[in-house]
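Subject: for your reference before the review

Hello V.,

The reviewers asked for a structural picture of the protein, and I figured it would be easier to keep everything in one thread rather than splitting it across files. Below is the amino acid sequence we used in the manuscript, unchanged from the supplementary table.
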Amino acid sequence: PRAARPRFGAPHSRESESVMHPVTDAQIHASFVNCSRREAAQATMPPGLAALDWERLDYLGWNDPKNPRRAYVVTWLDDRPVGIVLRAADGATTRNAVCAWCEDVIATNDVSLFVAKRAGSAGRNGNTLGTLICADFACSQNARRRPTIVEAGDDAAAVVARRVAGLQERSARFVASVAQGSPSPSRTASS
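And here is what came back from the structure prediction:
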């Protein structure tokens, strides 16, 4: 299993500003809402955290190098970091699917079905929420890649800005739904 480090593509512009702010190990450990305190304290931190280009991230996502089926996502909601623990479904990585967060049809990233226990009593009772996400969590890079001529027409910056805004909205909506224990609309599967 490979530990994913977010990568970034097209040049940064004001239209593609990030909502992700730098976070420390302690903030990450404290941010998890769908696991026990013990599990949060034992979470493996992402490699190269201090070297990340935070201005080009819309969320922080990484795979656990100790457990290839576990992954983590942290994003900012209501001016605070909110993290969730994800589990990759068995045999769910595919190149024939589109990530529900970045919706990039050009990038050839592997996409996995990730499932998160809902926070609180719903999660303790086995209620989960799932969605397809780039297996390497490179959505921020995919959203900022230079559009093809067909995609962009005359305004490539506007296309990138729309992609980034969509990624931010869809990833935040999923994390918020897990944190609140309420159903998330569009492209999610509950179990």
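For the response letter, the relevant points are probably these. Confidence is low (pLDDT under 50) at residues 1-16, 184-191. The first strand starts at residue 60 and ends at 63.

Happy to draft the paragraph if you're swamped.

O.
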